[in-house]
From TrEMBL:
One Pfam assignment: TIR_2
Record protein name field: TIR domain-containing protein
GO molecular function, one term: signaling receptor activity
GO terms, biological process: signal transduction
Keywords on record: Membrane, Signal, Transmembrane, Transmembrane helix
Keyword rRNA-binding in annotation: no
GO cellular component terms, A-Z: plasma membrane
Organism annotation: Paenibacillus woosongensis
Domain TIR: from-to ranges: 137-269
Record localization: Membrane
Amino acid sequence: MTKQLERNYVWECDFGERTHLKPIIKKLLDEQDASSLQMVSLMVNHNVYNLEFFIVFSYDNPIIGQIDRMKDMMIGSGVRYRPDITYDELFSELEHSRFNLMTLIDSQQVDVMYDQNFQYIERREVAKIISMRPLGKKLPVFISHTSKNKPFVEEIIAYLNAANLPVWYDDINIDFGESIVNKVQEGIKDSGAVIFWVTNDFLKSNWCQIEMESFLARLAGKNDILILTIVFEDVNIDELPLFIVGRKFLKVSSTDTINQIAMKLIPTLQKYFKEKMIN
C-alpha cells in the first residue's frame, strides 16, 4: 500500500469570536479517528496589537469524504481557509514568542483546554461592559458644492458637527488613489440629507448637475432623503432647476455669515433625523 503524505489545512479565525468553533472541533475529533485526523493545532497570538487565532487540521490517511466534511463545517462557521500559510511557517514563529500552541487529539480535551488557551474574553462579553458601537456610521449630510466654495463648506462643517450632524465631504471621505466617481456614488447612496450650495459656478458645473440628478432620482425612487438648498443672492431664480424652485430654499446674501446660515439649517436637519430614527 502506497504511503500517504500528510495533509495540512490552515484556517484563520476571529480571535474575538471563537466559542462557536468548539463544537465543530469536537465533532470532527469524534467522527474522524487519529488514523485519519492526526491532530488539531491551535495557534494563538495574544499580542494586543496583533491578536491572531489559527486552527490547523493535520491528516495522515483520511477516509473519502472526511476532508470535504471538515471544509464544509469550517467554511460554514465563517472562518477563512489560508492555503497561502503553512503549518511550518506558523510553527517557526513559536521561537519568536508569537504564538501559543495547543494540540488536540480527542474531543474530551476541547472543553478542558480550549478556553484556557485564550487570555482575553470574547467580543460579545466585552460589549456587555464597554460600548463597541462603530463610530461614523450615522447617516451623514452630503454637501454638494464647487471647488470655489470649499472654504465656506469647510467652515459650516464644524457647525454641523457641533450639532451632532456628521458630514460627507469629498476632501475627507476620498483617499488618494481611490475612484472619485465610485466614492461620490457611495456618498450619495449612504447620505441621509443633502445641502446644495448653489452659486452661479455651481449651476455651470457638470459634476454638480450630475450630483443633483442623482439625488433627485433617489428622491423620486425612495423619497428617503432630505434636500436643502442654499441659493446665493447673485443667482437668477429663473436658472434654478424646477425641483429646487418648487421647494423652500434658503436665500443668502454676502452679508450672511456661515454661523447665521448654520443656525437656519441645523434645526431642520435635526428634526428630520430625529423623525427618521423614530420611524
